[in-house]
């Protein structure tokens, strides 16, 4: 469980050293936090990274371990470590854009949980978030979560993994399901109220479009500007690959609406 955390923060320390030596102009650029999907390969992540580098943004990759999800207390601890880093130099005061894909949405929610629990300390960071993007958010019931584990961990044994996960959730309800429910409530009442964009599809077994669209409507009633791009058919956490032109144009319009600076004519 500790290994993924060490690997991630070694990456973050490398980034910090780089930024410490950067000039003031670099520090004035928005910082993109990319919360990747489980098992994301460097080549796939690079396609998203390049979209933001082309907007003259700095990109910080945040990866998650399945254990951060299976034992939420570790996920919360991990989220607090990330939050603390973002509140220290050289990231202090940087405007932030969030892009969370699949389980990355869960990891970002762990940061939101700490912000909600200690608003006096962490609210300034929430106000630095100029926009948040959710790609293939896992939304719905425990069944959707268990399905996600089966499809991502051992696809050939998807049914077995799903059944085992559901049993695990029942046996350790107070340590898993109850904390998931708390995270869902935090996300519904997110302390981040800047504009949001959702990418999702009707055939995604890990996402209930009905539940997601109700969430989007809830945020709109809270005064959040919410946009979305839904496809009838696509692939979980691979909408960019399946629908590249629509994905990029939708993202471009959203970023332009935030007045995110760009020195390139095309995203």
Automatic annotation (TrEMBL):
InterPro entries: AB_hydrolase_fold, DUF829_TMEM53. SUPFAM superfamilies: alpha/beta-Hydrolases (SSF53474). GO terms for molecular function: serine hydrolase activity. This is Si:dkey-5i3.5. It comes from Poecilia reticulata (Guppy).
């Amino acid at each position: 469980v500790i290994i993924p955390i060490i690997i991630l923060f070694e990456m973050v320390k490398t980034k910090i050293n780089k930024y410490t030596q950067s000039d003031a102009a670099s520090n004035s650029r928005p910082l993109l936090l990319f919360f990747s999907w489980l098992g994301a390969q460097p080549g796939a992540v690079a396609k998203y990274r390049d979209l933001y580098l082309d907007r003259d943004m700095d990109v910080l990759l945040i990866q998650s371990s399945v254990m951060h999800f299976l034992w939420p207390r570790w996920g919360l601890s991990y989220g607090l470590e990330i939050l603390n880093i973002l509140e220290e130099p050289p990231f202090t005061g940087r405007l932030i854009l969030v892009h969370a894909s699949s389980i990355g949405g869960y990891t970002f929610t762990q940061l939101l949980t700490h912000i909600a629990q200690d608003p006096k300390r962490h609210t300034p960071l929430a106000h630095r978030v100029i926009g948040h993007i959710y790609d293939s958010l896992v939304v719905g019931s425990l069944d959707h979560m268990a399905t996600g584990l089966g499809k991502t961990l051992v696809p050939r044994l998807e049914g077995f993994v799903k059944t085992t996960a559901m049993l695990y959730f029942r046996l350790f309800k107070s340590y898993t399901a109850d904390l998931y429910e708390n995270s869902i409530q935090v996300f519904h009442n997110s302390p981040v109220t800047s504009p949001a964009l959702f990418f999702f599809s009707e055939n995604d077994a890990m996402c209930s479009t009905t539940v997601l669209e109700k969430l989007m409507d809830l945020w709109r009633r809270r005064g959040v500007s919410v946009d979305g791009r839904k496809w009838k058919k696509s692939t979980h956490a691979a909408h960019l690959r399946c629908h590249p032109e629509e994905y990029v144009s939708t993202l471009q319009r959203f970023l332009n609406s935030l007045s995110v600076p760009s020195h390139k004519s095309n995203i």
